[in-house]
Design goal:
284 residues; mainly alpha; MetI-like fold; 12 helices; 0% strand
Length: 284
């Protein structure tokens, strides 16, 4: 059996004999309630604050009024057009950032000396906020959705790249030396040694990048005026339609929650063989 097959066989054996844990009964109910308790408290405060006079209902309407308005605009094609535009911008930016971050991470992390010579450049470019690029992207793309894609790609790229570099640093030295002893090719090393270690770091980077990408998508729509949920907020604000503006804000928040849930579910499914995911499942 070749060294590559030994690595694969060992990983499958670990996955096959990994303990499977299930949460059920009152423990599962308590865990679920603990996760939503904060949202319930926020909803109660949102509803009560304008009704008892702590906040002016003209500028901060009660949650029930916002939900009623959301039900009204949710039946319009304009609303779903805004949502679809934001999702398109978010997805394109995230995909480009993830792909380029993975490729650049592998190139820098696996090329001898590359990390030393690129460190200062990365540390110089990474802190630059994406919003500082807005004047430039407006000149290049105007108010089209491509402006938001550029901003998202720039900001999310660093999240993925840094996590890739952290993951490459975390590769077990014994596994690295063993691969070198068996004269693994570069492709075999990446597939059987580096990639299993990198995946948890990559998913962390993608999850952080996904949240940041949504924030930047909405921000770009608000500032640049491109089609999307952010533009819906600005149009409602300019029309003094406070309930409608907060309805779009609520939609943006729900999109963020959905993205985080989907990312975590995908991570648990694809990394169920990894000790970090198995241990987390056992803790639950």
């Amino acid at each position: 059996m070749s060294a590559s097959n030994e690595f694969v066989g060992e990983a499958r054996a670990v996955s096959r004999h990994a303990p499977r844990s299930r949460s059920f009964g009152w423990a599962g109910v308590a865990s679920w309630f603990g996760g939503v308790a904060g949202l319930l408290v926020l909803a109660v405060l949102w509803e009560a604050a304008p009704r008892v006079g702590l906040l002016d209902a003209k500028f901060f309407p009660a949650l029930s009024a916002v939900l009623a308005k959301l039900a009204v605009i949710g039946a319009t094609s304009e609303f779903w057009g805004f949502v679809a535009s934001t999702v398109r911008t978010w997805m394109l930016g995230l995909v480009i950032a993830t792909g380029s971050g993975v490729v650049m991470g592998l190139v820098i992390g696996l090329t001898p000396g590359a990390r030393k010579y690129t460190h200062s450049t990365i540390e110089f470019l990474r802190p630059i906020p994406s919003v500082a690029l807005i004047p430039g992207v407006i000149l290049l793309f105007g108010s089209r959705y491509q402006s938001g894609v550029v901003l998202i790609t720039y900001a999310a790229f660093w999240q993925v790249l840094l996590q890739m570099l952290y993951g490459l640093n975390d590769i077990d030295s014994v596994a690295r030396d063993t691969a070198r002893s068996f004269r693994f090719s570069r492709a075999a090393y990446v597939r059987h040694v580096a990639w299993p270690t990198l995946l948890p770091f990559l998913f962390t980077g993608v999850r952080l990048a996904a949240a940041m990408a949504l924030v930047l998508a909405v921000t770009a729509e608000m500032v640049i005026g491109s089609q999307g949920v952010g533009r819906g907020i600005m149009v409602a604000q300019a029309s003094n339609a406070a309930a409608e503006a907060y309805a779009y804000v609520l939609v943006a928040g729900l999109m963020g929650v959905a993205i985080n849930i989907a990312a975590r579910a995908l991570e648990r499914r694809l990394l169920r063989w990894h000790p970090s995911v198995r241990n987390a499942g056992g803790a639950r």
